[in-house]
Amino acid sequence: SPEFKNAGDVIYLLGETHDELGASEYYKMLARESKKISERHAIGNSVPKVDLQKNLQTYLALEKAIQKELIVSAISVTSGGLGIALAKACVGGIVGCKVDIKNIAGDAKSVDARLFSESQGRILVSVNSKNISKFEKIIKNISHTKLGKITKDSKFIVTEGKNKVVDSNVKKLHDIYHNFSNKMS
Predict the structure, then answer these.
(1) Rounded CA gap, 95 and 91, in Å?
(2) CA of 145: how far to CAs of 102, 104, 124, in Å?
(3) How far apart are CA 148 and CA 89, in angstroms?
(4) What is the maximum span of the chain, computed from C-alpha positions, in angstroms?
């Protein structure tokens, strides 16, 4: 299931993150909030590209890890990018996380791209710490990043090295998500 479950489980991002913010939810949001930039111009040029071979390798590794019962949770990184996938996984499990996005696999350079790129073929997973060795053997030949851990304190912390990028809490994210969902109903 997609939600994080256990404090202490390790969070991984499978796949590569690129500067692919074109047509992303992030750029659309920026366009709506800026009166100076029309939505058409804020959408950007660098749309996500699909690398079928890399994606297939990632999905096959994930399938093998699932068959060996090494995965506790998995959620695909889609609309909104990694930031939204992390938030959904924390809100769903009502647990926190502490992750570092500095060394994410791929060529995304900015914090915005690392958090909100919609690069295809990425999966956010959590793994029990006792299964890390077995899991890492399965994913050794695919692009991946060990991001951090699930926490029990309900804090939602994202860093880039020593710089804190997001410092929030799961209750606040829960309220924002449900307020937004209710408006869409």
Answers:
(1) 7
(2) 10, 6, 10
(3) 14
(4) 52
Element (H, E) at 175: helix 170-184
**Contact assessment for residue 108 and residue 19, using Cβ atoms and an 8 Å cutoff:** yes
Closest CA to 2 of 73, 94, 64: 73
pLDDT tens across 122-179, in order?
Answer: 999 999 999 999 999 999 999 999 999 999 999 999 999 999 999 999 999 999 888 8
Structure tokens that stand for 68 in this block: 């060996």
Work out whether strand 155-160 and strand 163-169 pair parallel, antiparallel, or are unpaired. Answer: antiparallel
Side chain identity at residue 139, one-letter code: I
Sheet of 71-76: strand order equals 71-76, 123-127, 10-14, 144-151, 96-100, 155-160, 163-169
3 pLDDT above the threshold of 70? yes
End-to-end, the C-alpha distance of the chain in Å comes to 24
Q: How far apart are CA 19 and CA 117, in angstroms?
A: 6
| Interatomic CA distance for residues 173 and 177, integer angstroms | 6
